[in-house]
Design goal:
44% helix, Arc Repressor Mutant, subunit A, 2 domains, Trna Endonuclease, Chain: A, domain 1, globular, 21% strand, three-stranded antiparallel β-sheet
């Protein structure tokens, strides 16, 4: 699934209709009514409303609005990175120029070279943050720890860190959208098999998943922003300004982010 595709419900399991979908539909109808001369894409709208609704609820509401004709939609191919689903108010007659500008900007930051850089940059930021907090790296891109090996799937962990004799298996996802739930579950079970605590460093995660992770002994480090390399700060600023997306180009993880985790770590010792 592309970072820019519609939400794929199959990736998150079958869910009954959520009562919040009705509320989401009303809020999105007002949102598009107030933005009659703008074009959006589905992931953008999901992220902009994530404080109120899970991404899949927003996406279902979008589909309802398309079905009843309140908004229009169009799917376009992106260069090398799948498709993008464009959305605009039904009364916006001259949407094509706006759609062209939006697609050009998305293609600029969705370029495979930048996408790869974002993934590596997220891991680099985490590595530096944990090193500053005196964690020792015990593994990188591995599914083996102290003689135990995970063989149920081909998945591995981005990092294994240890401090105060407590060991964490860490997965980093520097993306706008949620990670896939199936992968979350597998990585938690992988950590359980290796006898270490699961930890996910992500821009955002549904609160229900965070609770499940905590109940299974883990920790979610929520960054709130997709992190761009400092060398790409101009592009990050443009994406934030023109698309209203939570992206930033800090030189390091925020001190408060690591401090909250350290306090949690010390309580669990």
């Amino acid at each position: 699934m592309s970072e820019y595709d519609d939400f794929d419900f199959e990736d998150y399991g079958k869910r009954p209709p959520d009562p919040k979908e009705i509320s989401a539909k009303a809020i999105l109808e007002d949102f598009f009514d107030r933005s009659r001369e703008r074009v959006f894409f589905s992931r953008q709208v999901e992220v902009q409303h994530e404080d109120q609704f899970f991404h899949w609820i927003t996406n279902r509401a979008i589909r309802d609005l398309i079905d009843d004709g309140t908004i229009r939609g169009e799917t376009r191919a992106l260069k090398n990175v799948g498709t993008i689903h464009l959305l605009w108010h039904r009364n916006y007659r001259f949407y094509k120029r706006s759609a062209k500008r939006l697609v050009e900007l998305v293609e600029a930051y969705a370029d495979p070279n930048i996408g790869g850089a974002l993934g590596l940059h997220g891991e680099t930021m985490v590595l530096a943050g944990f090193a500053r907090s005196e964690f020792v790296m015990r593994g990188h891109n591995t599914r083996i720890f102290r003689g135990k090996i995970w063989e149920n799937t081909e998945h591995d962990l981005d990092f294994i860190f240890e401090r105060d004799s407590v060991v964490y298996g860490i997965e980093v996802k520097n993306t706008l959208g949620y990670m896939e739930y199936e992968e979350l579950d597998i990585k938690i079970r992988l950590c359980g098999h290796l006898g270490i605590r699961p930890m996910f460093v992500v821009r955002m995660m549904p609160k229900t998943w965070i609770k499940e992770l905590i109940d299974r002994g883990g920790y979610a480090m929520i960054l709130k922003y997709q992190l761009y390399p400092w060398t790409h700060r101009d592009l990050a600023q443009r994406v934030a300004r023109e698309l209203g997306l939570p992206v930033d180009a800090p030189r390091a993880l925020a001190d408060g982010t690591m401090e909250r985790f350290i306090r949690w770590h010390e309580k669990k010792m």
